[in-house]
Specification:
The protein contains one helix and nine strands. It has one helix at 98-111, and strands at 4-8, 10-11, 17-20, 25-33, 37-42, 51-58, 67-80, 87-93, 121-123. It has a six-stranded antiparallel β-barrel. The relative contact order is 0.27.
Length: 126
Amino acid sequence: MSEQRKGERKKLMTFTPAYGLEENILLGYIADLTLQGAMVSGEKPVVIDRELTLAIAFPETPETPAVRLTIPARVTWCQQEGNTSYYKTGFEFLELSAQNKRVIEAVLERYQFRPADDAHKWAAPD
């Protein structure tokens, strides 16, 4: 796939559920997050190019209250995770409010894994 994201992927250290707001269904859990989009790992495939409203529920911590964001998004890719029954789905954020941007920046700063090799980019898998 030729579409590539310019932001670095950030793997979150917390289980962060992502819901399809219109159907009120759990799509899966955030695996990677940037200001441009997210990768969700879930049990069902999602139709590519579908537009929906993601509801992302960041959990409460001792330092921060629980936060729920709603973000219009488009599915850019979806593929099965190896020989498992799980699917990885890439979502591109279509519109990010200033408040949602601040929340995501704070979440990335506070909860991201900091691997030795953080050179991979948020893009469709090969």
